[in-house]
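User: Teach me something about this protein's shape.
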Amino acid sequence: MTGAGTSTFWAEHLWTGVGDIRHGAVVEVVGDRIVSVVDDVAAPPTGSIELRGVTLPGLVNAHSHAFHRALRGRTQVGSGSFWTWRDVMYSVAGRLTPENYETLATAVFTEMVLAGVTTVGEFHYVHHTADGTPHDDPLAMSRALARAAATAGIRLTLLDTCYLVGGFAPASEPAAESDAEPADDPSAEPADDPSAEPVVDPSAEPVHVPLSPAQIRFGDGTVAAWAERATAVREALSGPTVVVGAAVHSVRAVPERDLATVAGWARGRDAPLHVHVSEQPAENADCARLLGSTPVALLRRHGVLDHRATAVHATHLTEDDVADLAAGDAWACFCVTTERDLADGVGPAGELVEAGVPLTVGSDSHAVIDLFEEARGIETGQRLVSNRRGWFGAARLMSAATVEGARSLGWDDAGLLEPGALADLVTVSLDSVRLADARRDSLLESIVFGATAADVSTVVVGGEIVVRDGVHARVASPGAALRSAIEAVLPPVDEPLSTLREDPSA
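Assistant: First, the predicted structure itself:
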């Protein structure tokens, strides 16, 4: 994905990520960087590559679980809840190998690139074999994802996820903590505790249950073992198109005593740190019952929330939670197509932005892969719950899908089309029935509120044309590749993925 030599692009219309849309813009690229942008060039210069339509910074998918793509449509059969959906997801996770995951992730990342995504944040926790033992190469699953991204032509931030316990202990039948004694990571810096708030002693009441057989391959046993493996992943895979960061799966899956170690690992390496936060009301209720805190307050207390951190989902927040995220200079990643698919709810986007928390977007479970839908879904969701229009303008929504996402994933030099920036850009055609009537005075609004992934015509990553006229330059038959890759991780047709029972709470 590193362009060779010099390329000249002529964009009919160009949004650089700031200001108004420009017209007749010439973008000069040397290697993988933009060196100049010149406006008001009426005709394409000789030898330039024409980009007809509206050209934008490359889209950034800030939250992905690639293997969840195999669930699309299949989890819509019957009823159920987030928790029954999770059972189905585990059945697919249990069939993943380094070989079939590389094939599947390549196909999924290819679908993303065709949709205009040039950078993806992969929240990766399927680390080991199905019985929990490491692969012969302990980094095999991570290497598979890196190879998949390279083949598809997409930048990758691999968020190596700490996942140590199986969830909060139920109120009716508390279970013991995992028997494994966590060891301190000597490379991690201790978190400050300016609030000096008391920490609930986990020994006073059992807090978490051990990993289940379906989850066992996600865990490293101790936080020190996670840190050791994550360090090896970072050293092995970091490069011009790969950033390795960290993730706390959730406060359900990482004990309180281990949060500071993960935060210290990220801080010591200036690496991005993402965490699932308050996606479901049950998570908040259990955290309050067992730890006397909201998840956000717990993360803040242990130094997780800072300018490297992203709270993924952030759906059910208190006013204090919003203030904590703002005080920590953290991001919030909304994944609206997944959140509405799983009936999670609508997060407080307006309150977060008013408090100074920037938003990013992700396709998460890939119910659809369409970042235009993710971006406008932030605004339309707020309209539904507030009976008010106009929470966010088109530029702010597009920034969530570009520059804010890039920065939250450790790509400070991506997300804008300006000299010195990475030459990642996407062109949206205006030829479809969805955009045929788009006018020069409202082009960005037409894109944000009318375009779909199908309108993407050209994608350039690092100066290299990866998609041209809607055709991927490297993957000949993306649909067929995706179909066969998904079939390889699903059970036989006569064996159901899982039993989707009626949700008794519905």
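Now, about its shape. Residues 57-408 form a domain with the TIM Barrel fold (CATH 3.20.20.140). The chain is about 30% helix and 20% strand. If you'd like, I can walk through any region in more detail.
User: That's plenty for now, thanks!
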